[in-house]
Write the structure tokens for this entry.
Amino acid sequence: MVPPTARAFALAFGVALGPGFQGAPAELLFTQPQPALYRLDDEELTPATVAGPAWGRAWPHGNSGDYVEFGSRVVLGVEAGVAVHALIHGRPLTPVRWIHDRLLILQAPDARAAAREAADLARRRGVVVSYPVIRNTARLESAYAAAPNDPHFPPQLANVTGQWYLENRDVTNGAVLGPDLNVRAAWPHTRGEGVTLAVADVGFELTHRELTNRVVGAPHWNFVTGTSNAAATGTSRTWAHATEVAGLAAATGGNGFGMSGVAPAARLASWVIFTNASRLASDEVLMEMYSFASNIVSVQNHSWNRGGLRQTGPTPLERAGMAAAIAHGRGGKGVVMVRAGGNDRASGANANDDYPADPDVIAVASVARNGRVAGHSEPGACLLVAAPSADAGDNALFTTDLSGPAGANFVNFLPPFEYLSDFAFNSLGFSGTSASTPLAAGTAALVLAANPHLTHRDVQQVLLQSARHFDFADPDVKTNGAGLVVSHSLGFGVVDAGHAVRLARAWSNRPALVTITQTFAGPLAIPDGGLKILVTGPDVPGHLQQIPCVGGTGPFPDDPTAPLPLAYLGPATTVPAEDLTGLAALIERSTNVSFATKIFNAAVAGAAFAIIHNVETNPISGSCPGGDQLCPMGGTDFVPIPAVFIGHRAGIELRDLFATNRAARAQLSLAPATIAFGVADPLSLEHVGVRLQTDHPRRAEIRVTLVSPAGTRSVLQRLNSDTNAGPVDWTYWSTHHFYEPAAGQWRLEVSDQLATRTGSALSASLILRGVAIADSDEDGLDDNWEQAHFDSLARGLTDDPDGDGYNNAREHAMGTDPTRPNDPFRVDLARWDARLLRLNWPGVEGQTYEVWGGPQPTDLTRLATVPGRFPETEWLTSSTNLPAQFFQIRTPAP
């Protein structure tokens, strides 16, 4: 007799269940314990003269796609009091495993017999479970989303460079090639749903196929005309700018067309703020723009700045609008403003001299595909994070363009590739910090979609904690006093959307912001020509004891170098054969070999610093002349040692002196005007600002740095080409002191690198922003937090007691328990593509992991050894020839 529930299920589908199971294809009813109807092909049930299959296939009723595999064993469960042996008497079934007294597994001759017997047993009174052992299909729902079906998501398709900036991996084996946003690790949790992102720009194409679904219901506004008509009005490349930005941030993904934005389910608002290609709306209108729809718009993207070398930023009216958006936007949580860092690196510009010098914005730099800062991206201590862009010689980013031949891509492509006319890519693609900014803004949208309760400060800190550096050959990449890696070129590094979303989901709001200001009233004279080579020792002529020089753009002798002998290398066009350890290098300038090449050659040989002297004459017009002219050494950002430039005559005299005077020593030294601030207030720091007023007639010559009690140095201004006076009255900001302790001695150093012009520091203020803590040991950790977790104050900021990769500084800010790993050690398995599976688990740097696998949990062999990577380590393997059904991650015994 069929159990009542099974009979009702069967009759509802009009299925006849009889002894012969007639019909083609056959349908069998099992109980699992819910009734489950499966369709089998005739060949799965037809008796055969040979042994039947070990596994067969069955399709759940109504499903013509995914099938299950059923085996030669039957799972049988019965009600209390039912005699199993009587039930199976005479059947080709043998008990092989008792799970408990009413649940067992029976062996059948083959899969066909198992299916027949299971279906027949399901009809018997007292049977509550009866089905063949089944291997179900399943979708790997894990920490890594499937790649979208947009054709240009892959990094390369034929001759079109695609969206490597979202996933920068080798298409053949999945190996990480360099920086990307790691969006597939964020998308299983959110794609930006419920978040509105505004693009403040020239207006984007609202009808673009990739954008039209993103713009519905968004607060579009044209601040120039005062209307809701916020579409792009021009057809040139300049007027495509906002459309390119919008696509990177939130183009619709997974629609089988074009591309995907970082937050492909976010809503996009178009805001027009340019009257023409280069003229902004009035500052009164911009004031209104910043706080427009601030309870609807969560993220603002500003891929624009004033540009140039002068110190120019928001006007008082603009600042008022920004302050209103921060104070009142998003119900008081603050609008998240994302700002381009600027593209004038080659001319010596600095992001800290423009709109990015603002602690309430997320200032974004550009990183090239190889992991190094892009050649256009301005440095600045105010930079928070970076995102990918294109460097010179690289194909630019793939993104949306004005449709057809308008915009950046003027080519009319023929079918079936006509859609490519609506996108910018390759040499016609998008680049600059304008392109990096919407990638960071899209990530911010993902963060807010994961946790809408975050304040704008929380979002900043989630992003900086998620960020990572890829170019550790850059000598400016340093670790601050809280153990965070930071640089003046890329801030805390490239944002990781997957890590950011994981952090956001568990993030506790940071306590209220506290601001402390200390002011120095001058004047204090700035030593003229403070950068010098000091030569000491017997018989050193007076005019060689202090030699004026000019520095480069790389490592700088803010602290004096050791006094060392000089080894003369001539032009140093190749690495010298001699060992220069314990020596400094004196090098002759060449007109056909770069400064950087010469300095690198000296450093490879072991030189501690380098001095390059001018040639006697320079025949090349338009470049720095020869003789005693001092030339700033451009292109030296990434040299590994400090270097300076001197005139020809001084160089020759140094060469001759050190050839005969073995006791002589040279060192690089900077004499700044130093302003000390003693801070007693205990804060866990966030942004740090310096307001500086001087009367120096030429800002270009001034170098400004700030040194924290932890020893971290922020370069606020370096040698540049600004011929205006100043800094007259400017406030610089630094992100480099995040989570450091505020208490202790701070040093502001203001130096004049070139002689002839003099000036004084008239006034200086140190502005400390952070969270108030009780900090009797001045280590940056709240005493109560330390006592609660460690029962003492013995731990420091950079300690990591639980070994999870999150040091105490991070855990203190995140509000997590530093004695227990933040992420449980869990192994996830996901499909990377049709050929490869991705195994991933929480990891830390410096740890080695072993991947073990096998057919059973008790039968495992070692498959691979993988170096750890924070916060997540991965291993990829073939999905078509899977080496194991069970995996285990082990840390090898020490």
